[in-house]
Hints:
Blueprint: E1 2-8, E2 11-16, E3 26-35, H1 38-44, E4 60-68, E5 78-81, E6 84-85, H2 91-94, E7 105-106, E8 118-122, E9 126-128, H3 135-138, H4 141-157, E10 166-170, H5 174-185, E11 190-194, H6 198-208, E12 211-213, E13 225-230, H7 235-244, E14 245-253, H8 265-270, E15 274-277, H9 283-294, E16 305-308, H10 312-320, E17 329-332
Parallel strand pairs: 10-11, 10-13, 11-12, 13-14, 14-15, 16-17
Antiparallel strand pairs: 1-2, 3-4, 3-8, 3-17, 4-5, 5-9, 6-7
Helix pairs in contact: 4-5, 4-9
Amino acid sequence: MKALVYTQPNRMEIQERPYPQLVAGEVIVKIEAAGVCGSDMHAYHGRDPRRKPGLVMGHELAGTVVESADARIDAGARVTANPLITCGRCDHCLQGRGNLCTDRSMVGMTRPGAFAEFMSIPSSSLVEIPQGLAPAKAAVTEPAATALHAINLSMRALFRPVPECKTLVIGGGAIGMLSALLLRSYGCGDITLAETNALRRESARLNLACKVCDPTVDAPADSAFDYVIDAVGAAPTRNMAIASAKPGSVVMHIGLQSNSSEIDMRKLTLGELTLLGCYTYSTIDMRAAIRAMHHGAFGTLDWIETRGLSQGAQAFDDLDKGRAASAKLILQPGG
């Protein structure tokens, strides 16, 4: 089968790889769409020691089951999947917080992923795709679940309901776009999105119907927002998030572009800010996200861009060079 392989930093190649082996409790999925995640780009740049050269990446997927070693799953089922494979036994798993499982592995990281024609995955990871939802849109379920998980966590800490919050979303990538769209569906009417890439700013203007700014030219005002989402996670965006937050507000940190930075702990303390971290989602979040997507909570998703898997190397290069206007590139085998 054909697969897009990470061969060395800043290099992806189409290669022939063996068809996956079917083992007990797993299924083989024919991949119809697979999204490029920011974490895939992080690995592409050689900055993720967990993703080693020779790996087939890709963990945002949609496809059809073609073989099943689980009597409960039939061939022909249309599915997306939770790429986090958890132990199911630890306290976190038993609490329904499998994203925090300390014995987890992951599709596209510790085992071959979805940038291929076929992929194997445990049947317990599968999430059914609603009838009528196109594969390219269903592949956005994974980042949509991240946005949903983050906003649901935030709502437990916010002192006022989301519709009353003046909100700043930092980053116009998929997580930022999806967060803004979901907030809009929850009734939040005052949203500003900050994005440095001009192509993505224009896409946000066309698809989000919210205020859009270039923070390098028109920085968000200090202490002006009730709720801030950092969907980038770099030192400058962390500083922007803390600076722009009102006293008593909530800052949700989703992105992790860089690992460490100094933040204004004095403001965090004196302003009684709530700073939250968020890692991925649970399978329940994924099911909720795909239902919300099917019912229009994330809009039409017309801003996503599809390319053939054979164009995958160019897609990574375009994302790296800032030439892609879309916040989400989807690769489709056969193209």
